[in-house]
């Protein structure tokens, strides 16, 4: 169909687009004001929370109500909560049965009580979360899932008109941290034979849904990179610029350059890649044109949450490190990193550290690797420390409320051995200026190129395996 052209109407299009954007900007505020004016009440959101190393991801509401009514459950048989929460749910569900194992405690005692007693979980307000809790879905719904609607959630409690909710989407930020990406070798071959975006079609939507998506890319882009077909098996990595849309498809918002393969084809591809990231508006860290540039953090503000990400390469080899005059990865200087973290925290930033560290051949974490993670956690106290180097997934722990994940495994790479196929990417949650927790996403590689999410049975077995390697002895360490 051909439409008549109208010069005056077309000239109004930029104005219309501008007005629509401004309307969308103010829409949440307008809806809030309308709800107050029409008597529509907000909801107060509560969560069922378990100690972090809990394999199970959720329960049915009927299980929670069964405990409330004094009957036993498979995974948990005790609840702790504050007096205020007890009053709220007594009003919602009625008095608990006299035989119900429910203990009322001060807020500061809930977390240690649950960690110290098997089968003890907690009911608590969403805004009281701590990263050492695991948020459990109830009837498949959790505030830690995309598209969460308090109105459809069993643990929402209506508030009086005009009362502010403790769950405000405009205060929430999601940051996804990922493991190794190197679009080379078999991965490159399957891009060429199967289609550009086929490798990420199972995971792209979830990755891109995060407010901030991190990619640790270890293969520099260059037009001179040999094509993926015929297959090149060498451990000398590069990617064709034509593969850049894969990063866009997964919603890459920040790229880490601490990897030890980014200079495999020399400095020119590395510099070419920096220009590609800059043109795409994607900030980088952990690598740069000089050592000073490579050590600078990326500062990101979203919904009032101020997140600073910095990283370094601790393991070399020496020729991959940037110098005062040559590009490459940021060489780890732990004393400088501690000072940077202290300065960032004093300025109100939430520091996140990523390490390129020792690559190990099993799930366990060797002392040579964990030493630097613990030193930064104990002496500087960033909110998160994440290992980007691991091709084999590793465990996690806490030092106080600092979350450490020693190695996530591969994201977009081609390794298909039994210990390398499974891996994590971690979705972290920040709310109202605090880090409140994370969800471990679990994936497995198919056909040397295509990650997919683990099914429930696979995920259960994988989490049990990884948690069995973890030590939690520093979880309640007092800040120094």
Sequence-ordered SSE layout with sheet pairings:
Layout: H1 7-11, H2 13-38, E1 43-51, E2 58-59, H3 61-68, E3 78-81, H4 83-93, E4 102-104, H5 107-115, E5 120-125, E6 133-138, E7 156-158, E8 172-177, E9 180-181, H6 185-194, H7 204-209, E10 212-217, H8 244-249, E11 252-256, H9 267-280, E12 284-285, E13 287-288, H10 291-294, E14 298-302, E15 305-313, E16 328-329, H11 334-346, E17 350-356, H12 367-380, E18 384-387, E19 396-399, E20 402-405, E21 410-412, E22 422-431, E23 434-446, E24 450-453, H13 456-467
Parallel strand pairs: 2-6, 3-4, 3-5, 8-10, 9-10, 9-21, 10-11, 11-12, 15-17, 17-18, 18-20
Antiparallel strand pairs: 1-5, 1-6, 1-7, 8-22, 13-16, 14-15, 19-20, 22-23, 23-24
Helix pairs in contact: 11-12
Describe this structure in words.
This protein has helices at residues 7-11, 13-38, 61-68, 83-93, 107-115, 185-194, 204-209, 244-249, 267-280, 291-294, 334-346, 367-380, 456-467; strands at residues 43-51, 58-59, 78-81, 102-104, 120-125, 133-138, 156-158, 172-177, 180-181, 212-217, 252-256, 284-285, 287-288, 298-302, 305-313, 328-329, 350-356, 384-387, 396-399, 402-405, 410-412, 422-431, 434-446, 450-453. Strand 17 (350-356), helix 12 (367-380) and strand 18 form a beta-alpha-beta unit. The chain has 2 domains: 43-167, 3-Layer(aba) Sandwich (D-Maltodextrin-Binding Protein, domain 2), CATH 3.40.190; 171-467, Metallo-dependent phosphatases (Purple Acid Phosphatase, chain A, domain 2), CATH 3.60.21.10. With 480 residues, the protein is of the alpha/beta class. The protein is globular, with a radius of gyration of 24 Å. 29% of the residues lie in helices and 25% in strands. Mean pLDDT is 92; it is low at 1-39. Helix 11 (334-346) runs parallel beside helix 12 (367-380). It has 13 helices and 24 strands. The strands form 4 sheets. Strands 8, 9, 10, 11, 12, 21, 22, 23 and 24 form a 9-stranded mixed β-sheet that branches.
């Amino acid at each position: 169909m051909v439409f008549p052209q109208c010069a005056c109407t077309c000239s109004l299009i930029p104005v219309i687009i501008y007005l629509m954007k401004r309307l969308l900007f103010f829409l949440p505020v307008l809806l809030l004001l309308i709800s107050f004016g029409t008597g529509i009440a907000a909801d107060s959101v509560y969560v069922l929370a378990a100690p972090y190393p809990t394999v199970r991801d959720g329960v049915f509401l009927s299980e929670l109500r069964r405990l409330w009514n004094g009957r036993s459950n498979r995974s948990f048989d005790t609840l702790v909560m504050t007096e205020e929460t007890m009053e709220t749910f007594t009003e919602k569900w009625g008095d608990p049965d006299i035989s119900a194992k429910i203990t009322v405690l001060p807020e500061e005692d809930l977390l240690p009580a649950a960690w110290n007693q098997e089968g003890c979980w907690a009911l608590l307000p969403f805004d009281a979360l701590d990263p050492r809790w695991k948020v459990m879905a109830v009837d498949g719904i959790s505030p830690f899932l995309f598209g969460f609607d308090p109105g459809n959630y069993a643990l929402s409690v209506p508030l009086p008109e005009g009362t502010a909710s403790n769950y405000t989407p405009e205060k929430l930020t999601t940051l996804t941290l990922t493991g190794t990406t190197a679009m080379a070798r078999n991965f490159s071959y399957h891009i060429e034979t199967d289609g550009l975006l086929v490798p990420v079609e199972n995971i792209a939507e979830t990755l891109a849904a995060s407010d901030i998506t991190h990619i640790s890319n270890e293969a520099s882009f260059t037009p001179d990179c040999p094509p993926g077909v015929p297959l090149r098996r060498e451990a000398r990595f590069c990617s064709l610029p034509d593969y850049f849309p894969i990063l866009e498809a997964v919603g890459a918002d920040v790229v880490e350059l601490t990897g030890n393969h980014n200079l495999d084809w020399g400095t020119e591809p590395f510099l070419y890649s920096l220009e590609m990231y800059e043109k795409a508006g994607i900030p980088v860290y952990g690598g740069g044109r000089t050592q000073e540039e490579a050590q600078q953090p990326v500062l990101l503000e979203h919904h009032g949450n101020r997140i600073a990400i910095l990283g370094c390469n601790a393991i070399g080899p020496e020729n991959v490190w940037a110098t005062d005059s040559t590009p490459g990865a940021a060489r780890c200087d732990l004393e400088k990193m501690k000072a940077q973290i202290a300065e960032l925290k004093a300025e109100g930033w939430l520091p996140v550290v990523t390490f390129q560290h020792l690559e190990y051949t099993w799930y366990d974490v060797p002392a040579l690797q964990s030493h630097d993670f613990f030193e930064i956690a104990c002496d500087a106290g960033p909110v998160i420390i994440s290992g980007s180097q691991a091709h084999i997934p590793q465990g996690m722990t806490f030092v106080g409320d600092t979350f450490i994940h020693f190695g996530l495994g591969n994201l977009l790479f081609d390794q298909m051995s039994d210990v390398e196929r499974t891996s994590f990417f971690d979705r972290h949650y920040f709310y109202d200026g605090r880090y409140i927790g994370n969800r471990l996403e679990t994936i497995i590689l198919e056909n040397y190129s295509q990650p997919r999410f683990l099914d429930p049975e696979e995920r259960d077995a994988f989490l049990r395996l990884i948690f069995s390697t973890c030590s939690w002895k520093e979880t309640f360490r007092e800040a120094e």
